[in-house]
Design brief:
InterPro entries: SGNH_hydro_sf. This is SGNH hydrolase-type esterase domain-containing protein. It comes from Labrys miyagiensis. By secondary structure, this protein is mostly helical. The chain has two domains: 30 residues, no CATH class; 98 residues, Rossmann fold. It is built from seven helices and four strands; from the N terminus they run βαβαβαβαααα. The strands form two sheets. A two-stranded antiparallel sheet has the order 1-2. A two-stranded parallel sheet has the order 3-4.
Amino acid sequence: MRHKQEGFLFYAADFNSWAPEDRGWLKSDFTPTGFLDFETSMANLEAIVDEIRKHKDVPILIYNVSPIIPGERIHCYQGLDETFANRIRRFNLGLVGLSERAGISIVDVDTLMARHGADTMKLDAFHLAPQAYRLVAEEVVRILDDLGVLEDLHEGRQL
């Protein structure tokens, strides 16, 4: 959704569960924009990586997303538009391609959730349980260590 007067974007998660007055506010103050198409999204992300690299050669970590949506139990996709879970899967595969081209690192939240049980690690489509956030933080530290960033910091070198 885009704010009608100020132009900022806003993702209205679980809009249908909102109180009627909140849904009314959303409808009166915002206009639907639809999702950004996959190709534009990946091109924008790659442009951001390129822009960062123009200024400094630093490790870049991008988190992927777990496509597990608690409570979702689709078994037949015929007649459905793109589901949010499938959109996430496309995004994650796009990140792999970006990693291959640009050398970014992926914090693989999807695999972490799968290994530890997404049904217990995810609160909803976006939010994780506290123990899941800890796993993600530990994975970030592992990646930074693999990249030598922690050693650089320990030795007082700045990135």
